[in-house]
User: Which sequence fits this backbone?
């Protein structure tokens, strides 16, 4: 009688090896992963955590990489008021545009109640400088994805609501009109919860809208080593290089996406594999840094007074209150309770 033991053993070993590989997805350098994604997708989305120093350090490195600047036509930013698109176009082309004019694009958005992080202005500046160094070569364009609110004419909450209620629609429309219609390749940067698939969050859905419009999308969301409780750390991340991107499969794909994104909360759905294509890992939770404008930089300035006015219009501050601006420029991204 012919034995079946050896074929079964071989099959078991091969199957185990495949499953083991799937359970241990390999992170790769973040820039390499993004460039590879653009080989097969016209849209790569980064679901970010706002104001993060490590993330914006990587953005600057990515934008100045020649292969990225050669390949990508547009960078679509949530932190950009489309009312000022013409000034932004001139600025990133390297023209002489007064800073006080162009900075309205990132300071005057409807999606931000407080002062803008200095990191955003730095990203605009890096695109400008990279384009200037590439005179005669392919140029990148920064597209402003936020609605065209004119804060100078807003006096009460009635003037805000028509814009605040259509932020995702505005962002998706910019991508459809300025990227997809022109057959461009674009990097999209927006808060992770706006992009996350199968999310209970009411603002999620930009990525699905673009896929329905015919875009070939690859979605990467920020995440750190917090699979559940805010003080619980997953040490399987410890050996990963930073910044890195890892496919949302194996044990990584089984983790709750919102817990990873938000630094540890007891969410269960969606799993990362159901919410995104990949994870952007920037380091352990307690190593991450947020960068803000400080009280010393804002108090007594026109911008600081304008922020206070907007906070009162949006009823975040009462009339007799003053804003609690940051005391330090750099603070932990996720303060421990």
Assistant:
């Amino acid at each position: 009688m012919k034995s079946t033991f050896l074929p079964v053993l071989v099959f078991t070993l091969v199957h185990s090896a495949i499953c083991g590989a799937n359970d241990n997805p390999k992170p790769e350098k973040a820039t390499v992963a993004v460039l590879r994604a653009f080989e097969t997708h016209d849209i790569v989305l980064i679901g970010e955590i706002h104001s993060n120093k490590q993330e914006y350090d990587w953005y600057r490195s990515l934008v100045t990489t020649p292969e990225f600047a050669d390949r990508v036509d547009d960078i679509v930013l949530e932190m950009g008021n489309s009312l000022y698109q013409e000034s932004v176009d001139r600025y990133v082309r390297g023209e002489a545009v007064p800073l006080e004019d162009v900075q309205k694009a990132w300071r005057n958005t409807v999606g931000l109640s407080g002062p803008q992080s200095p990191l955003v202005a730095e990203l605009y500046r890096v695109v400008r400088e990279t384009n200037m160094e590439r005179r005669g070569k392919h140029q990148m364009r920064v597209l402003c994805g936020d609605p065209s609110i004119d804060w100078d004419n807003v006096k009460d909450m009635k003037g805000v609501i028509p814009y605040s209620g259509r932020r995702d629609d505005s962002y998706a429309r910019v991508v459809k009109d300025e990227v997809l219609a022109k057959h461009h390749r674009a990097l999209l940067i927006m808060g992770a919860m706006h992009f996350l698939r199968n999310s209970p969050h009411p603002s999620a859905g930009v990525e699905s809208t673009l896929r329905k419009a015919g875009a070939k999308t690859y979605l990467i969301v920020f995440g750190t080593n917090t699979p559940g409780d805010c003080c619980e750390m997953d040490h399987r991340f410890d050996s990963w290089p930073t910044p890195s991107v890892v496919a949302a499969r194996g044990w990584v794909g089984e983790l709750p996406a919102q817990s990873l994104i938000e630094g540890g909360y007891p969410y269960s759905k969606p799993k990362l594999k159901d919410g995104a294509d990949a994870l952007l890992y920037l380091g352990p939770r307690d190593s991450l840094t947020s960068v803000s404008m400080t009280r010393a930089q804002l108090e007594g300035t026109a911008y600081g007074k304008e922020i206070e006015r907007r906070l009162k219009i949006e009823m975040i501050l009462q009339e007799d209150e003053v804003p609690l601006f940051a005391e330090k420029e750099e603070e932990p991204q996720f303060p421990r309770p």
